From TrEMBL:
It comes from Brevibacterium rongguiense. The gene is apt. The lineage of its organism: Bacteria, Bacillati, Actinomycetota, Actinomycetes, Micrococcales. GO terms for molecular function: adenine binding; adenine phosphoribosyltransferase activity; AMP binding. Pathway: Purine metabolism; AMP biosynthesis via salvage pathway; AMP from adenine: step 1/1. It catalyses: AMP + diphosphate = 5-phospho-alpha-D-ribose 1-diphosphate + adenine. Its EC number is 2.4.2.7. Its main location: cytoplasm. Homodimer. This is Adenine phosphoribosyltransferase. Catalyzes a salvage reaction resulting in the formation of AMP, that is energically less costly than de novo synthesis. It is an enzyme of class 2 (transferase). Residues 46-165 form the Phosphoribosyltransferase domain.
Length: 174
């Protein structure tokens, strides 16, 4: 992976104002996903800081699934979906939390063995609410969270502070 590849990937992320509501700037990663080389570069960058330290990747609904699945495939590890409430057939842990534009609930199943080392993956870290809630439900089902990796962090929303001592890797910030 080279700097030019990541610079090109960054240029494919679009900022859309007032989505999903006024005052929110939505980061549209779909053009990046459509470009195979850019997508491969960011997957490598997201996985590299945690190389050899995780058994599975927890993808946060919904766009986190895309990055987590690709990281799991690239590293030969498992995939654990962390879903919105009511979408899993046998949820084992549940957590309510606040996000940038409201409230939400996530759930996870207990499909990994106790002590499994899990890397959380998502597209954007905003307030940190989703990552914080994911840490809680994963630990509740016996997993050991080794860190979180995100494509894009928005520093002014203080997500890094909210997740505390969780090791965080970001590809882009701003």
């Amino acid at each position: 992976m080279t700097s030019p590849e990541l610079a090109r990937a960054a240029s494919l992320i679009r900022s859309i104002p007032d989505v999903p509501k006024p005052g929110i700037v939505f980061r549209d990663v779909m053009p990046l996903l459509a470009d195979a080389r850019a997508f491969a570069a960011v997957i490598e960058a997201m996985a590299a800081p945690f190389a050899g330290r995780f058994d599975a990747v927890a993808g946060l609904e919904a766009r986190g699934f895309l990055f987590a699945g690709a990281i799991a495939q690239a590293t030969g590890t498992g995939l654990v979906p962390v879903r919105k409430a009511g979408r899993l057939p046998r949820p084992a842990a549940r957590r309510d939390y606040t996000i940038e534009y409201g409230e939400a609930t996530i759930e996870v199943q207990d499909d990994l063995p106790p002590g499994a080392r899990v890397l959380i993956a998502d597209d954007v870290l905003a307030t940190g609410g989703t990552v914080e809630a994911a840490c809680h439900v994963l630990r509740e089902v016996g997993c050991r969270v080794v860190g979180a990796t995100v494509l894009f962090a928005i520093p002014e929303l203080c997500g890094r502070e909210r997740i505390g001592d969780i090791e965080l890797a970001t590809v882009f910030e701003g």
